[in-house]
Design brief:
By secondary structure, the protein is mainly alpha-helical. It has one domain (about 5-80). It contains four helices and no strands. It has helices at about 5-20, 25, 30-55, 60-80. Helix 1 (about 5-20) runs antiparallel to helix 3 (about 30-55), helix 1 packs parallel to helix 4 (about 60-80) and helix 3 (about 30-55) runs antiparallel to helix 4. The N and C termini lie far apart (about 45 Å).
Amino acid sequence: MNVKFLAVSTVSIIAFLSIYFSGYTAYGNAYIAFALCLILSLIPLVWSVIQLFKKDIGAIIFLIISAMLLLFTLFMFLTPEAGNPPELFR
């Protein structure tokens, strides 16, 4: 497994989780939080796909985790909640 891939993917996943658990997604600017979460989940996703084409089978774990983070980001910001509009459209 490529060390650079492992470092960048791990740092971006940890940064995503720290943004989420710090509460910035709830109390900060929703557009900036959405952009940050989207970028931080797309970086390991794209890099994992590239690593899979290079026959790096260990990238499947990061591909699954980053796909779940991307789907969670879309769910968190773009779905309505109990009759309220989505977070980005308030």
